[in-house]
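Input (structure):
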C-alpha cells in the first residue's frame, strides 16, 4: 500500500503572495480563452494543467500529501483572480480545489487510494442526494444519476451525495461516496445552459458499484468536526466545519465575475456616446452611481469574507469552539453574495445601452455567469434565514450543512 509522501525538506512551498500573483498573471490568458471555454462547454485541458503547475490545487491539500495546507483566504484570493479572467474557470477551480480539503477528512485509507500514486489527482463532485444506497457488509452498493458535476472530465475520482436509509430506525444518514473513474461514467453533452457554460458540469452515471465504508464521509462528522481523517491531518485547518469551506467555494467566483463586469462597464462608459441623445456615458451620473455602488459593495463583501475566515482560523488555532450562531450567520452571508453581485451588475448593464447587449460585449458573459450561479442551492439565502434566527434563540439549526 502506498505511503504518504513527505515534502522534501529543501523544497519550500510557494508563498501565499506568490500563488496569488501567479493567479493574477493568468487573467489575460484566461480572458483570451474565455470565448473558447464558453463555446466548448468546458475549461480547456491546458488551463487546468497550468493551474496544476502553478500549485493552486495544493493550497488546501495536507502537507503530508505534498500540499501547502494554507489559510483558506489564500485559496479564495486565487479563485477570485482566476474568475476575473473567466468565471467558468474560477468556478471549477473553487469546486475542484476545495475537494482536497474534504478528502483530508476521509479515512486515511481513502486518501492513500487517491493520492498514494498521484498526489496531484483531481476530484469532482455532485452532492445531490439522489443516489440509491444498499448497505452491505463492509460498505455499500451505490447506483444513480447525478447532475452538475463541474470539471468532471478533468478528474480521476468523484464525490457523490446520497442518503443511507438503513440506519436501524434512525434518521437517514447523509454521506458522500468516493468513487474512482472506472466506477462511473461522465455523460458529456448534458450541460446546455445560459451561463457558466464552460464549467462542463456534466451528469454522472453509476450502475450499482461497491463503495467500501472507508470511502464514505458522513455529513454528521463534517458538521461535528469529528472526521476520521483528522487523526492524521490534525492541523487547525482541518478542524474547521467542512461546509464553511464548501459554501464559499461556490460563491467566491462571483467576486471575480463582478470585478470583470465593473472593469467592462468602465471601459464601455469611457467611449460610449448615445446615438439617440448624443449624451456621453462618461457624464452620466446614474451610471457613475451604479459603478460606484458595485465597486464599494464588492469590497465590503470581500472584507466580510476575509474577516470570517480569519476569525474561523483564529478560533481553530486557539481551540475555541465555533458557535452555531456564527456558523449559521457565515453560511447565510455566503448565500447572499451571488444574488447581490448579480443585482449590482444588472444595475450597470441597464445603463450601458445597446452596446452592452452584444455577446461580444465584455460585460455580458459575467452577467450571464452571475445569474447562472444564483441557481446553486448554497447560493439561495432562503435556505439559511431560519437558522440565523433560530440559533440566535439558542435552538438547533434545521439545516446542518453549515
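Output (sequence):
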Amino acid at each position: 500500500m502506498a505511503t504518504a509522501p513527505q515534502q522534501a525538506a529543501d523544497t519550500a512551498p510557494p508563498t501565499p503572495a506568490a500563488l496569488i500573483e501567479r493567479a493574477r498573471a493568468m487573467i489575460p490568458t484566461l480572458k483570451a480563452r474565455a470565448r473558447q471555454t464558453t463555446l466548448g462547454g468546458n475549461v480547456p485541458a491546458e488551463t487546468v494543467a497550468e493551474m496544476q503547475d502553478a500549485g493552486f490545487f495544493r493550497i488546501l491539500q495536507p502537507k503530508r500529501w505534498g500540499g501547502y495546507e494554507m489559510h483558506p483566504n489564500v485559496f479564495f484570493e486565487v479563485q477570485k483572480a482566476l474568475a476575473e479572467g473567466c468565471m467558468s474557470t474560477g468556478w471549477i477551480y473553487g469546486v475542484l480545489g476545495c475537494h482536497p480539503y474534504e478528502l483530508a477528512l476521509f479515512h486515511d485509507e481513502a486518501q492513500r487510494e487517491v493520492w498514494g500514486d498521484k498526489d496531484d489527482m483531481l476530484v469532482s463532485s455532485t452532492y445531490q442526494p439522489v443516489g440509491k444506497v444498499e448497505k452491505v457488509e463492509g460498505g455499500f452498493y451505490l447506483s444513480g444519476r447525478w447532475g452538475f458535476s463541474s470539471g468532471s472530465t478533468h478528474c480521476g475520482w468523484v464525490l457523490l451525495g446520497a442518503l443511507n436509509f438503513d440506519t436501524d430506525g434512525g434518521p437517514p444518514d447523509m454521506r458522500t461516496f468516493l468513487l474512482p473513474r472506472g466506477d462511473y461514467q461522465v455523460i458529456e453533452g448534458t450541460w446546455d445552459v445560459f451561463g457558466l457554460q464552460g464549467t462542463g458540469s456534466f451528469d454522472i452515471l453509476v450502475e450499482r458499484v461497491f463503495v467500501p465504508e472507508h470511502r464514505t464521509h458522513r455529513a454528521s462528522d463534517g458538521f461535528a468536526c469529528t472526521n476520521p481523517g483528522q487523526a492524521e491531518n490534525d492541523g487547525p485547518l482541518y478542524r474547521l466545519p467542512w461546509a464553511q469551506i464548501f459554501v464559499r467555494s461556490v460563491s467566491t467566483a462571483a467576486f471575480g465575475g463582478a470585478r470583470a463586469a465593473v472593469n467592462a462597464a468602465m471601459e464601455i462608459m469611457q467611449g460610449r456616446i448615445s446615438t439617440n441623445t448624443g449624451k456621453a456615458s462618461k457624464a452620466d451620473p446614474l451610471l457613475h452611481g451604479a459603478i460606484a455602488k458595485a465597486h464599494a459593495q464588492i469590497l465590503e463583501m470581500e472584507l466580510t469574507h476575509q474577516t470570517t475566515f480569519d476569525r474561523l482560523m483564529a478560533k481553530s488555532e486557539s481551540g475555541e469552539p465555533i458557535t452555531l450562531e456564527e456558523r449559521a450567520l457565515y453560511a447565510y452571508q455566503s448565500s447572499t453574495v451571488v444574488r447581490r453581485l448579480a443585482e449590482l451588475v444588472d444595475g450597470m448593464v441597464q445603463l450601458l445601452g445597446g452596446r452592452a447587449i452584444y455577446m461580444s460585449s465584455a460585460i455580458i458573459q459575467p452577467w450571464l455567469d452571475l445569474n447562472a450561479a444564483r441557481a446553486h442551492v448554497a447560493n439561495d439565502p432562503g435556505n439559511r434565514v431560519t437558522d440565523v434566527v433560530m440559533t440566535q434563540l439558542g435552538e438547533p439549526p434545521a439545516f446542518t450543512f453549515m
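Notes: The first strand starts at residue 123 and ends at 136. Strands lie at 123-136, 139-149, 157-164, 173-180, 185-187, 202-212, 216-218.
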